[in-house]
Amino acid sequence: MKLLLPFLLSALPLASVAQSQPPAGALTPKTTEVMVIMTAKQGVTRQEIMAVMPDEIRATVKLYLEGKIRQWYSRGDGKGVIVLLDAKTLEEARAIIDPMPISKLALVDHEYIPVGPLMALALIGNEPARQ
């Protein structure tokens, strides 16, 4: 059991690279959430963003209470937000985000990233038993 954590930690960088470009026939994770990175469009001022913030916050809280937004974060560099949506497809995620006030006003760029279970964990079940 002591070896499991170091193994997982060492596999994380490799697994993330491997998942970014899956080879043909490789296992790909089932999408369980969609991460959306929202960044202010070039030329959009802080004042433009702040003017819509009260409506954006109300809409965000409503989606959270409905279970559509699982988590949300401020980017550490201060350039936007990241939300994790309860969505299984990019289309489903866009249907959640597009009606948001800040999106309707085209103030932000969106990057949609489907995410799922770390497939490197499947290797654990394929290890021979140790004695």
Provide an overview of this structure.
There is one protein chain. By secondary structure, this protein is an alpha+beta fold. The chain has 2 domains: 31 residues, no CATH class; 83 residues, Dimeric alpha+beta barrel (Alpha-Beta Plaits, 2-Layer Sandwich), CATH 3.30.70. Helix content is 37%, strand content 21%. The protein has 4 helices and 4 strands. The protein has a 4-stranded antiparallel beta sheet with strand order 2-3-1-4, covered by helices on one side. A hairpin with a 5-residue loop joins strand 2 and strand 3. It starts with a helix and ends in a 16-residue tail after the last strand. The relative contact order is 0.24.
Number of helices: 4
Nearest-integer average pLDDT: 83
Largest sheet: 4 strands, antiparallel
- Beta content comes to 15-25%
Level-1 CATH class name of the largest domain? Alpha Beta
Low-confidence stretches: 3-9, 12-19
Q: Going across the major beta sheet, what is the strand order?
A: 2-3-1-4
Helix content: 25-40%
Q: What is the radius of gyration? A: 19 Å
Gap between N and C termini: 12 Å
**Which shape, going by the Cα principal axes?**
elongated
String of helices and strands: HEHEEHHE
Number of domains: 2
Name the CATH superfamily classification of the largest domain.
Answer: Dimeric alpha+beta barrel
Structural class: alpha+beta
CATH architecture call of the largest domain: 2-Layer Sandwich
CATH fold-level topology of the largest domain: Alpha-Beta Plaits
**Number of DSSP-assigned strands:** 4
